[in-house]
Amino acid sequence: MTDTGTPAAAGPDVPPLRRLRYFHGQMLGARDFQREQAYHLEKARLRMRGLLGYGVVCGLFVEPVPPDDDCPPGGGYPADDGNPADDGHAADGGHAGEAGGRTAEADGSAPAGESGAEAEHARRRARVRLTSGLAVDCEGNEVVVRGGCVIDLWKALPRHERDTDTVWVGVRYAERPVEATRAVYDDGCADTSDCEFGWTEECYRVCVTGCEPPVDERCDTCCSRCEHKVLWLARIDRVDWHEPVRRDRIHMNVRRPFGRHVPTVITGINWIHGHTYTVDEAKALLGTQNEDAGLVVRFSGDVRTDCLRPGVVELQVIEGGSGRNASTWYMGGTFAEPDDGCGEFTRGFRYRQTTRETLQDGDRVMITVRAAFVLDRCRRPVDGTHVGGRVPTIDARADAPGARGGCDLPPSGVGPWTSGTGAGGDVFESWFFVKER
User: Fold this and answer.
1) 3-state secondary structure of 171
2) Residue 103, φ and ψ in degrees, nearest 5
3) The pLDDT of residue 287
4) Are the beta carbons of 85 and 98 closer than 8 angstroms?
5) pTM (2 d.p.)
6) d(C-alpha 283, C-alpha 201), whole Å
7) Helix/strand/coil (H, E, C) string of 11-38?
8) Which of 5, 104, 168, 172 is the most exposed place for a label (fewest CB within 10 A)?
9) What whole-number distance in Å separates Cα of residue 51 and Cα of residue 309?
10) Three-state SS for 238?
């Protein structure tokens, strides 16, 4: 008989954990203390990534630099802007890079012979500000950004990627030796008594790329190491190198929230929650007479198609109107998409009405998606709680002006809204009203 159960998990990918054993009369050297320090660091990282996970904890917002601030006095950079080094790959957090080898145009000044207007147009002004914050990378290292920094996107990009207008901005953990000191005793193996750095400072590096970063597809962070250690914070679309970056082109929903896994959520629907449609509009939306129409739901990741069964989605009509009301009945429906041959996973579904019951003035149509019965690629339930009724429409232009009131951003400060509270499962509920005309 074939075993179809869950395969046994591989052992944790960690080095042997050996700690120093002290005894009377033991002779200890620098290597012994270094190994003991490495032991405690590895234990702390193991607990962090194994028990808690990784991702952005707080802050680390990517914001546009206001036009008034993109030209500091003297035409250079502010002293604490963290502008990247000339290699174009990364910048030491909180410290200016070296200026050697830069051209006049890259530094923001005009090439010789250009007029003032031409120089102003040639000066590259696409810069963003990274705010302070805290994150944990996939190895369990804490990435602390103090005070933030300003990033020149053109200089930070590798030279061979500068033909793109879409860039990704991220940070990664780094270390550097500091506080040089001279040893009291010479090393017996050394020729001279050179200075050594006495401390290691934990810092960060800013990374900018024009190639879409890979996605961490691991279902758990415990037993396997990650391959990509950069925490990506934002995607910036349609970058004009000679103009300040616009806020509406910075998309921070690419970042990973802190945790052991990222839950699959509902990211869009094709109706406006709480809106009032006419009878004809409701028929067109529900696909009453059109097999190509119906209610559409989009997910942030893949979900299993075999979970989309009868009963997962229900349409309930609560009768209204000026006369007797509050009677309720269920509207028949079926999944029009995905069809039977679409594959094992899908990113959404379309559900349409299959009966000919008619809606009347004052009716309310309740839409229920039992998200706890819909499993994602990692066999975890979709996090479906419709928080505040804020899940946006798939076509953002279809949102009724002022329909959602305030709270444009979720508590994390990174939009747009999605379903979910982090607990997983639950029921996605929404509704709309019907009027005669």
Assistant:
1) strand
2) -85, 165
3) 93
4) yes
5) 0.78
6) 64
7) CCCCCCCCCCCCCCCCCCCHHHHHHHHH
8) 5
9) 34
10) coil
Residue 115, number of CB atoms within 10 A of its CB: 9
- Name the 3-class secondary structure at 347: strand
Note the helical H segments in 81-183.
Answer: 116-122, 153-156
The domain limits of the chain are 30-99+120-187+195-251, 266-401+416-435
Tell me the C-alpha to C-alpha distance, in Å, between residue 211 and each of 58, 169, 232, 235, 293: 26, 11, 12, 11, 36
* Residue 128 in tokens: 């963003």
Element holding 166 (H helix, E strand) = none
SS3 33: helix
CA distance 185 to 180: 15
- CB neighbours of residue 160 within 10 Å: 9
| Integer angstrom CA distances of residue 180 from 37, 199, 200, 202, 400 | 20, 8, 10, 16, 63
pLDDT at 402: 52
Q: In this structure, are residues 147 and 205 in contact, taking their beta carbons and an 8 Å threshold?
A: no
Residue 436 class from Cβ within 10 Å (0-12 exposed, 13-18 middle, 19+ buried)?
exposed
8 Å CB contact between 278 and 345 = no
Q: Which of 118, 106, 109 is nearest to 154 (CA)?
A: 106
Of 66-80, 214-228, 397-411, the least confident: 66-80
Q: How many CB atoms lie within 10 A of CB 107?
A: 17
As a whole number, mean pLDDT of residues 9-32 equals 81
More confident residue, 156 or 93: 156
pLDDT tens-digit readout, 329-363: 999 999 999 987 788 999 999 999 999 888 989 99
Q: Is 389 exposed, middle or buried (0-12, 13-18, 19+ CB in 10 A)?
A: middle
Residue 279 DSSP SS3: helix
3-state secondary structure of 389: helix
Q: How far is CA 5 from the centre of its chain?
A: 32
Encoded amino acid at 202, one letter: E
Give the CA dihedral 232, 238, 243, 244, nearest 10 degrees.
-40
Is the pLDDT at 96 greater than 90? The verdict is no
Q: How far apart are CA 386 and CA 321, in angstroms?
A: 27
Which band of pLDDT confidence, cut at 50, 70 and 90, is reported for residue 78?
very low
Q: Which two tokens stand for residue 280?
A: 């004809």
Distances from the Cα of 268 to the Cα of 176, 297, 392, 394, 399, angstroms: 44, 6, 5, 5, 12
Q: Which amino acid is at 243?
A: E
Least reliable range by pLDDT among 156-165, 221-230, 274-283, 378-387: 221-230
